[in-house]
Specification:
Helices cover 67% and strands 6% of the residues. The chain is an alpha+beta fold and 441 residues long. The strands form 2 sheets. A 4-stranded antiparallel sheet has the order 5-1-4-6. It has a two-stranded antiparallel ribbon with strand order 2-3.
Length: 441
């Protein structure tokens, strides 16, 4: 409580907190603006039982279930950011631009904004043709060309406005704006989810107590795993000049257990959503049912396999052992007992494989947890289970930990005692996680 009062006494921090709360309030107010021509809350009624839909809805800010202006939310911008994150690792030209520092990052951010527009148009068009036109009752009137253009452009404009709000929060507020918008959407959805449980269950309070117990256990596990890291010791070479000895300091390279964050679950869910909708459109209902039967053995098995695959794919894409080994050698550093160069790269790759396996098991458990919750509480829909457990908790806890790290850094910079006592918090987790650079022990 004392630390919070100290934060509010700092004018800059107080202003950033107020700006963040104000912009989030503006966003949450905007999700009540309906799109003309669409049946109110139709999509929510159609998708209420889908856990995969819950994931996409969370990344839209929790409003994809409503036929409102902000239905797409921040999802197109997140998609564009993921695309450029991958391109920065596979394209030498973009990687070179990224290494230019602030100038290069500014250029990539501009490209990300521009790429958000066609992605938002594509997703809006997909929702119109893949959902509204194929389901009776979705439209309030006739499906005319004018109505189609109005809906697609309205959803796109709403998504661009949400992107702008996110960037304002990032620049003038606290933390990453996109992450805070997603977290706000999930948290705002939770009270409504509990209310639906009370309405659906014969003994709602037993179900709520069960969910609260599961939720607390998940939070503890997520915090433990998110803070967990493998510290690889690093030694700087000693340099003797006259009677003075320079270097020889010991540092460590922190490798987080869950480097990939929620990215593998996002990719795996996308793989399930796209084929399922396509098969349904072409009339292959039996094949489409495999991708929508969230309790089926085939669905769960494929989902877990995809989470494992994308976890290894993302970590190997974002963490380059050869590049880390070269950087260590160029800076006169080495891992004690390991020869610099290829041996160091092989050593880091072995560590990466082991911690990626542990992270993949953790993410696979979170991915199928909503299915377990729906099985434990009869009558509970998949989407409600998603918002009350599993990946949603991972997102909320990850963003909250990142926010605490930032606030703690602001206090420490002004010689106050931070929220977290000791050596530090171990770095910000963020949406995607990741490995930091060497730190002093």
């Amino acid at each position: 409580m004392n630390q919070l009062l100290q934060l509010l006494r700092i004018p800059e921090t107080r202003q950033r907190i107020l700006v963040t709360l104000g912009l989030l309030f503006l966003y949450r107010s905007g999700i009540h603006i309906p799109v003309p021509g669409l049946s109110a809350r139709f999509l929510e009624e159609q998708q209420q039982g889908s856990t995969v839909f819950g994931l996409i809805s969370a990344f839209s800010g929790g409003s994809l279930g409503d036929t409102v202006l902000f239905a797409l939310g921040i999802m197109p911008y997140i998609s564009a950011s993921i695309i450029f994150s991958v391109l920065a690792k596979v394209s030498p030209q973009i990687e070179a631009i990224q290494k230019e520092g602030a100038t290069g990052q500014k250029k990539i951010n501009q490209w990300t904004r521009l790429a958000t527009v066609p992605i938002a148009l594509l997703q809006s068009t997909f929702i119109w043709f893949g959902v509204f036109l194929n389901m009776p009752g979705a439209l309030a009137g006739e499906p005319t060309l004018f109505l189609a253009l109005a809906v697609i452009l309205a959803l796109t404009a709403g998504s661009m406005f949400v992107m702008w709000l996110g960037e304002l929060i990032t620049e003038y507020g606290l933390g990453n704006g996109s992450s805070l918008i997603i977290m706000a959407g999930i948290i705002a959805e939770m009270p409504g989810s509990l209310q639906r449980i009370i309405q659906q269950q014969d003994e709602p309070y037993n179900a709520i107590l069960t969910l609260i117990g599961i939720w607390i256990a998940i939070v503890l596990v997520v915090v433990f795993v998110q803070k967990g890291e493998r510290r690889v010791p690093i030694q700087y070479a000693r340099l003797t000049r006259g009677r003075r000895v320079y270097g020889g300091q010991r540092h460590y390279l922190p490798l987080k257990i869950n480097m990939a964050g929620v990215m593998p679950i996002i990719f795996a869910s996308a793989v399930f959503i796209i084929p399922g909708v396509l098969f349904k459109v072409v009339g292959l209902e039996r094949v489409a049912a495999v991708f929508s039967d969230t309790d089926g053995f085939v669905y769960v098995t494929l989902y877990v396999v995809l989470v494992f695959f994308f976890c290894f794919f993302w970590n190997n894409l974002m963490f380059r052992p050869e590049e880390i080994a070269d950087n260590l050698r160029e800076h006169g550093s080495f891992i004690p007992g390991i020869r610099p160069g290829a041996r160091t790269a092989a050593y880091l790759k072995g560590i990466l494989t082991r911690i990626t396996l542990a992270g993949a098991v953790f993410l696979a458990f979170l991915a199928v947890l909503p299915n377990f919750i729906t099985g434990s509480i009869p009558g509970l829909s998949g989407r409600l289970a998603y918002f009350l457990g599993g990946t949603s908790v991972l997102i909320v806890v990850g963003v909250a930990m990142d926010l605490v790290d930032r606030l703690n850094a602001m206090l420490v910079m002004r010689n106050y005692e931070g929220f977290v006592k000791g050596k530090g918090t171990g770095g910000a987790g963020g949406m995607a996680g990741g490995a930091g650079w060497a730190r002093k022990t």
